[in-house]
Amino acid sequence: MITHILIRDFAIISEIDIDLNGGLTVVTGETGAGKSIIIEAISLALGGRADKAMVRAGRSKAVVQLAAELRDETGEVSEHILTREIGASGKSLAKIDGEIVTLARLSEFAARLADIHGQYDRHSLFKTENHLALIDAHRSRDTEPARKKAAAAWRADAETKRALSALLESEASSARRRDFMRFELDEITKAELKLGEDETLRENLSVLQNGEAIHEKTTFATEALYDGEGAAMDGLGAAMRALREVSAHSKELGEIARIVADAYYALEDMSGSLRALRDRMDFSPETLNNLIARLDLIERLCGKYGGSVAKVLEYGETLGAALADIENIDARKAELTARLSANEDELVRACEALRALRKTSADELEAKINAELAELNFSGASFAARFDEEGDLRRKLSENGADSVEFLISPNRGQPLLPLAKIASGGEMSRVLLAFKAVIGDYDGIPTMIFDEIDSGISGITAGTVGKKLVRMAAKRQIVCITHLPQIAACGAHHLAIRKSDDGDGVRTFMEVLSEDERVLEIARLLGGANVTETTLKSARELIELSAAGAKA
Questions:
Q1: Nearest-angstrom CA–CA distance, 271 and 264
Q2: Is the N or C terminus of the chain more exposed, i.e. has fewer CB atoms within 10 Å?
């Protein structure tokens, strides 16, 4: 709800700085005092249109600020400040909690906070595209699960349509691609590549290309270590045996003997490997050429299909899967077509079930609103929610079902039903809005409602009924009502008065909180005009007492 209003240098307002309370607050004032200007200023702070003509004459800018509290779904309350500034040059600035935001962002945020009757273009009630959401909200416990089911069915249907469309689009080019893809896959498959094969080939090629030197050196090493005169193994064996004979006499000699023995046996183990390496050296040109050819093949495939053996193998798997899809395209197409038909049937059933629930909700909403209109002495008025059922339902399927709804009203018996926005009379529109708010206010989530000219065109018993209805609505939210009728003003829990004065620098409008005595005097003025008498004061007190009693009843 709105907790504070600050208006500075706006039109004829020099400054208004005032707290707002919960419940029903009534605002009164003499004709021309500036009641409409207050509404215009608040509307501006909620994202309304800005005009440099709104800046008070001689001032550089106008500022409107609203302090507000918002309660989330968990019940936690957050505090916010909405600011709107208009420069004399026409430049406008919007802020939320001190941060500059776009006007669209401010309007979006403000829509959760307050609803001002009078700015009809800002009301969801008068926008046909929002009527369906109000019907859904009225019986949300039933409609929300059904709406989610329809939305899920629509998404599944849309995904299947996208998959089938992509498949059909690729079908024409698939035949041309198939032969080329098969050629590439055959080339990769026939190569029978193995991970790490290229590294092994390069190593073997290096060995073969240096085979003569390797054979010569390994032969020399074999003779030096094992076979030649004065071979290292003979000397090392003799040293090992000599040291073993004396190793028991010294710990140090024992350690040396162990190291020499380890070296002897290590060389002995290596002898077989060295001789085998020397003996298998193949200097055959055929073997060398085969190695070079194989490595050339692998390098060519790597250069063509990815840069490494792993990438070539991965590309081959991709080709295989793509070819399988192409070669099975008819089966895939049949599968998607059957799935699409099943999805559409499921979507139609979900939308039909949702429509039935929406019609039940609409019937209940019609009955409740017509009852509210009757209470407001809207004699002969008739409200209806009309579903557009022309044409094939399948052509209207969407994520939100297949329905479009428009709220219609006949203000008087015998008159045709017309869209809400075409109601000619401001008083009629005010009462229609009040009837709607009395019904949908519990679930539209808007904590503050501001009514301007709610009493236009009504008097007497109807005014008292409107006042009682406002009191009942204010039990659950903040209601601010600008009125000129004493019957409505007497129902307020809080009373603000708008005054106009000339302070020598020009006319200015200000607002003040009325005490109980001041409130009686103000209502007496509404009852009897400028000449307040003891009779009108007494009537004012009685009216306040009767209103308080009626509110409790």
A1: 11
A2: C
